[in-house]
Specification:
about 250 residues; alpha+beta; six-stranded mixed sheet; 6 helices; about 15% strand
């Protein structure tokens, strides 16, 4: 997705800006319950806002329908699971089998041209989740956060690759981040973060995605006919690179 430089078409709305501390970027995998649920399992009749406990039970039972237990979303009601929870090869294998089955049933090929797995990075500060990946976001969105670390322009620029998107601009000495938004309305600065803190968070996220890539390679379903190492890195958003450790070291510096 090409970066979006947003030009405000109306006056900026002034709001209280929160200075973030203990910033984390948490890699998460999107686990939509519909991909895992038995055919006869029906979702709750109401919205999550009206029926939070019923939706949480539906998500957990849907995952269990595919033999997947023990996962916890990044926060109640979310379908995003931190990749750090996938440290069991057999469990991740079942998750990948369900995802691959759903993709092939809807006409997508599992090959080296496929998109990274849906999910992305959740922004968290002092153990509070502030932003989750938007619709269509995937694990490749780390690149946008890396670019944001060194962004020093006053114009708003997109950070995330889903929508609604988060935008960033430089208000010395910090980066301002907007609330997730779409359309052409003027972005509202919501948070301010020290670029070095954001860099540390991005480095930690890159290390975890590298680990998760290795876990995907080990858990690749036997039905896969593509080189598992190259596909595993592709699915983790590493663009098929053979090794990202040098890039992590350079970015850390």
């Amino acid at each position: 997705m090409r970066p979006i430089v947003q030009v405000a078409v109306c006056e900026e709305v002034v709001s209280s800006i929160v200075k973030l501390e203990d910033v984390e970027l948490i890699p998460v995998l999107q686990c939509e319950p519909f991909r895992f649920a038995a055919e006869d399992r029906l979702p709750p009749a109401g919205t999550y806002k009206d029926m939070p406990e019923e939706w949480d039970r539906y998500w957990r039972k849907s995952m269990a329908d595919s033999g997947i237990k023990g996962l916890t979303p990044i926060e109640p009601g979310s379908w995003h699971v931190p990749t750090s929870q996938f440290n069991n090869t057999a469990l991740l294998n079942r998750v990948l089998e369900a995802i691959f089955h759903d993709l092939t049933e809807t006409g997508f090929d599992i090959d080296l041209e496929c998109m990274p797995l849906l999910g992305g990075l959740a922004l968290r500060s002092q153990s509070q989740v502030l932003v989750e990946p938007g619709c269509c976001a995937d694990l490749g969105e780390l690149a946008g956060w890396r670019k944001a670390v060194d962004y020093r322009q006053v114009e708003w620029r997109s950070v995330s690759n889903g929508h609604p998107w988060v935008l960033a601009r430089y208000d010395p000495p910090r980066l301002s981040l907007s609330e997730p938004q779409e359309g052409l309305r003027a972005p509202t600065p919501r948070w301010a973060v020290c670029p070095n803190q954001l860099r540390d968070a991005a480095v930690a996220a890159a290390v975890e995605i590298e680990r998760f890539s290795d876990e995907i390679i080990r858990a690749m379903p036997s039905s896969c006919e593509v080189d598992p190492r190259r596909l595993g890195r592709r699915l983790a958003g590493l663009n098929g690179a053979t090794n990202d450790k040098q890039a992590i070291a350079e970015f850390r510096a």
